[in-house]
Amino acid sequence: MAPSLEEPDRVEDVIAHPLKQKPTLVAPEPEHCPGPESEQAGAADSCAGCPNQAICASAPKGPDPDIPIIAARLAGVKHKILVVSGKGGVGKSTFTSLLAHAFAINPDNSVGVMDTDICGPSIPKMMGVESETLHVSGAGMSPVYVMDNLGVVSIQFMLPNRDDAIIWRGPKKNGLIKQFLKDVDWGDLDFLLVDTPPGTSDEHLSVNAFLKESGIDGAVVVTTPQEVSLLDVRKEIDFCRKAGIRVLGLVENMSMFVCPKCDHASEIFRATTGGGRGLAEEMGIPFLGAVPIDPRIAMACDYGESFFDSFPDSPACKALKGVVSSLADQIGLDPRDVLPEQ
Ligand code: ADP
After folding, report:
1. Which residues lie with the beta carbon below 6 Å from any ligand 1 atom?
2. 193 torsion bin: left (phi>0), alpha (psi -120 to 50), beta (else)
3. Distance (Å, rounded) from C-alpha 328 to C-alpha 114?
């Protein structure tokens, strides 16, 4: 296949100039549409002959008026933390839900989870609110409460049918993500954890671009110890740096498996290149800790239960609490306030 001659967009530019408000179109967007809100709208090769071309070309290209609305929605949130991964399947959503339960152990903390993973929203299942519907009032969408101090909102709640494949193209997905960020009424919160779409996809860029303006603390990067995952995580860390998002640290998930019968430890995803700790050192970012594989984590997620409540003495639970303490440190909090029993 011939190499593409098209210059890729620079991360810094995309983040600095997030997508604009979508103009009203007179026809469906054609294949290879650059996006009616993008800088190339109306001027790209694929725009030639499109009935929307003139509309897109004249659409406003200035700062997105929705950005201040999103920032206002999140103004009462003290700490906003993105959970990111380079690759799917490494435990990003699992870790987000574990982190939320950990923060919520202290009844004085108010915690929110926002699931923006449009292609694989698994937070509702993991938090046990899959069959819930969102309450919408004049003030916006209210989160679904899992505990008195733990609210959840997922983009899944805005999708027509949870089993439908999401095959929308970029611009439509971005529009939905933006709508979602604009509509949720969080009120006052201590912690908001945002489960982001994996990799550096278009949706990932949108979520970061929209939230960056709202003053996020930074991103926690989740990986497995395997080089195949680390490879993508390097790109993710590079992305965060270029986008000006602070990397709060790296968590190595699925680092070991300790057999519950014989206590033998196996490296299922062997760290052939130094694992998460090695990568954190290499890239000069904090290593927050390693969480073992524990089938009870997967089970707790499937049943929408808190792993912390169900298995408080397990090695995985202790490891997770260590990660929470390191993360608290990184955002300038006393770990004993975040997890009082530590
Ligand atoms: P991602 O959000 O990165 O796509 P998920 O959080 O959906 O990944 O996790 C992928 C799978 O791995 C899920 O089945 C989840 O239950 C399981 N899983 C994640 N972390 C662990 C762990 N530490 N121990 C056991 N299973 C895990």
Report:
1. 85, 88-94, 122, 253-254, 291, 293-295, 297-298, 301
2. beta
3. 19
In whole angstroms, what is the distance from residue 22 CA to residue 38 CA?
Answer: 9
- Ligand 1 mutation target, pool 126, 194, 221, 301, most atoms within 8 A of CB: 301
Q: Is the pLDDT of residue 19 over 70?
A: no
**Closest among 162, 150, 140, 155 to 106, alpha carbons compared:** 150
What is the band of 91 on the pLDDT scale with cuts at 50, 70, 90?
A: very high
Give 282's pLDDT tier (boundaries 50, 70, 90): very high
Helix, strand, or coil (residue 8): coil
Q: What pLDDT does residue 209 have?
A: 81
Which residues touch 332 (CB under 8 Å, ≥6 apart)? none
Distance 155 CA to ligand 1 centre (A): 19
Claim: this prediction has a pTM higher than 0.85: no
Q: What is the pLDDT of residue 120?
A: 72
255 is in an annotated binding site: no
Domain map (residue ranges) of the chain: 35-62, 67-338
Distance 298 CA to ligand 1 centre (A): 6
* Ligand 1 centroid distance, CA of 322 (Å): 19
Q: What is the CA radius of gyration of the chain?
A: 21
> At residue 145, what are phi and psi to the nearest 5 degrees?
-95, 125
Is 244 within any annotated ligand binding site? no
Name the architecture of domain 67-338: 3-Layer(aba) Sandwich (3.40)
